[in-house]
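Incident log, support desk, overnight shift.

02:14 A customer reports that sequence design results differ from what the structure should imply. Their input is reproduced verbatim below. On-call engineer (initials T.W.) acknowledged and began investigating.
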């Protein structure tokens, strides 16, 4: 059967024709601005993408082709416990960081310019200090003969030193200290952009100051809060130095387990499977967060 053909009537605008397919040469053609980004793209491909593909490949072929490394992760209760401990500690670190970072960022928006600079410097100095140095300083602070136990014993608060090192509490304490700048700065960036007149307008309409804070200021600050918590949680999943110095075998996290498998047991394929699992978890979390949050706005414009 002959198919009817469409004919354009005079005076009627013709339908836009389908765009011709772009050739491969035009698709990969690089203009002047693109040439500026080319070195960075090549560098990222060399140091990030290729090692990532090699890690993924090795997780399936070392020591034997298949899913043996991934099956071993969930067959051994030790490895499953390490995974659960990693997520539990990351969740606790994120929750404690929120409780500490939000009021601090809010006070920065209320403080006078001089004190605001002081508070900002107090956040940035730890941010510029090496994580190894900060974690080792916490070892001196938290050990049985450290500063906290010595002051408490001298003040008569306790008779015997309280064990804080090699505990889950010590690990959370140290990781929160490291994570605070990553939460405070996005929160402060979001809060400083909120128009204070909105809260005053709500109070003029009869709202209490606490009601105006919770119903206007808090919702408007949520993008910065979400960005800070997302950065904190994702980083906490991959921490190695701080848990290794402040924790013990019972508080092992996945980062320590990967290093142990590579340096002590030489199970490179199994370590690659653990790293791939950590990467997949991070991507899943980012995918879930993108459903409820504009990641471009939260992570780039607010930071």
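02:41 Re-run completed on a clean worker. Output:
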């Amino acid at each position: 059967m002959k198919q009817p053909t469409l004919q354009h009537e005079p005076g009627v605008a013709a339908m836009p024709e389908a765009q011709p397919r772009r050739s491969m040469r035009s698709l990969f053609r690089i203009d002047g601005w693109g040439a500026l980004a080319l070195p960075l793209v090549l560098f990222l491909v060399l140091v990030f993408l290729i090692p990532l593909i090699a890690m993924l490949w090795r997780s399936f072929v070392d020591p034997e082709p298949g899913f043996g490394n991934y099956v071993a992760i969930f067959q051994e209760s030790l490895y499953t416990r390490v995974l659960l401990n990693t997520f539990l500690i990351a969740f606790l670190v994120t929750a404690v960081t929120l409780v500490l970072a939000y009021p601090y960022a809010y006070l920065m928006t209320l403080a006078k310019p001089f004190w605001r600079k002081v508070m900002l410097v107090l956040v940035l100095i730890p941010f510029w200090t090496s994580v190894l140095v900060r974690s080792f300083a916490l070892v001196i602070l938290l050990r049985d003969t450290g500063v906290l136990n010595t002051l408490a014993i001298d003040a008569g608060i306790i008779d015997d030193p309280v064990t804080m090192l090699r505990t889950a509490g010590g690990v959370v304490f140290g990781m929160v200290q490291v994570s605070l700048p990553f939460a405070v700065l996005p929160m402060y960036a979001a809060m400083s952009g909120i128009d204070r007149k909105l809260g005053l307008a709500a109070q003029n309409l009869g709202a209490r100051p606490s009601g105006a804070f919770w119903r206007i200021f808090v919702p408007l600050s949520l993008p910065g809060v979400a960005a800070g918590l997302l950065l904190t949680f994702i980083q906490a999943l991959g921490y190695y130095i701080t848990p290794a110095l402040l924790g013990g075998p019972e508080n092992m996290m996945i980062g320590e387990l990967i290093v142990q498998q590579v340096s002590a047991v030489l199970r490179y394929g199994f370590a690659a499977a653990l790293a791939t699992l950590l990467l997949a978890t991070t991507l899943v979390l980012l995918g879930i967060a993108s459903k409820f949050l504009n990641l471009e706005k939260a992570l780039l414009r607010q930071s």
